[in-house]
Amino acid sequence: MSNKGNVALTIIKPRSGWQVIDFKELREYRDLFFSFVWRDVKVMYAQTILGLSWAILQPAIHIVIFTIIFGKVAKIGTDGIPYVLFSSVAIIPWNYIAQSMTQSSHSLISGQNMLGKIYFPRLVFPIAPILSKLVNFGISLLIVSGIMIYYRVSPTVNLLYLPVFIVMMMLVPAAVGLWLSSLAIRFRDVQHIMPFFIQLLMYTAPIIYSASTIPEHYRIFYSLNPLVGVIEGFRACMLGMPIPWHYVWPGTVVGVLLLFTGALYFRRMESIIVDVI
Question: Which three-class secondary structure state does DSSP give residue 48?
Fold first, then answer.
């Protein structure tokens, strides 16, 4: 900003180099940010027959299939927990992670028509799905509550830690979404790799099996997967099991590192998004 007489001149220049997230700018555009979140929520259920019931039906189908195949047929060990209960407390956070990660990664491509028309923080695109998918997650928790009531599982003091693991659950797709959304504008095959990537992640997390089945000398490496701490943390909070902090802390450190580096890379790519896309 410079003054020449009574005329104020504002010079707008593109950002360059490595920069951290401008939280002040995000705060100034908070109304737009929440309108994006609300738009995503409405789009999820627009012109659907079952409406909000999809948030219960989809994880319920997964729980039934997993219980039959892995609980009844394969008879995978669950540390003495009924398999339907064991799988439900893992599938609910996993569905949230998979859905929000996919939508976040595709956000810049799907919103490309809006990017060149007006300026606003591009970070809104990959972060909005992280919040909008919480609606599905909250509704899906009714399934876990119903199964817990059926098996007469009473809440314990561990339930107080659940908000911590919900934040960790949100951290994973936010970190991956920042990386993949910024990579997808340059390499369009990222969107084709995503389904395989999501499927691979599911088998690397203790969703259909317990982390205790991993050989002990590999567990330190296994715990570096942020999904491990999230899934095992949810089981501990919901079912009253001891919280496995030895899985939680390594994965949290990796998740925070991915989020920080993903934000830096996204900001570096932000100035060329419109040109490249």
Answer: coil
Give CA–CA dist 116/273, Å, rounded. Answer: 9
Burial group, residue 111, by CB count within 10 angstroms (0-12, 13-18, 19+): middle
CA gap 94, 230 in Å, rounded: 9
Which of the 8 DSSP states describes residue 70? I
7 pLDDT band (50/70/90 cuts)? low
Question: Helical H runs in the chain?
Answer: 23-28, 30-45, 54-66, 83-105, 107-110, 112-115, 124-132, 134-150, 162-184, 190-204, 219-222, 226-239, 245-270, 273-276
The share of the chain scoring above pLDDT 70, in percent, equals: 84
Q: pLDDT tens digits for 9-24? A: 555 454 555 556 666 7
End-to-end CA distance of the chain: 31
Using one digit for the tens of pLDDT, what is the confidence trace for 242-266?
999 999 999 999 999 999 999 888 8
What value does the CA radius of gyration of the chain take, rounded to a whole number of Å?
21
Domain residue ranges of the chain, discontinuous segments joined by +: 23-270
Pairwise CA distance, residues 129 & 217, whole Å: 37
Give φ, ψ of 117 to 5 degrees. Answer: -90, -35
pTM: 0.85
Higher pLDDT, 223 or 155: 223
In this structure, what token pair is assigned to residue 192?
């084709």
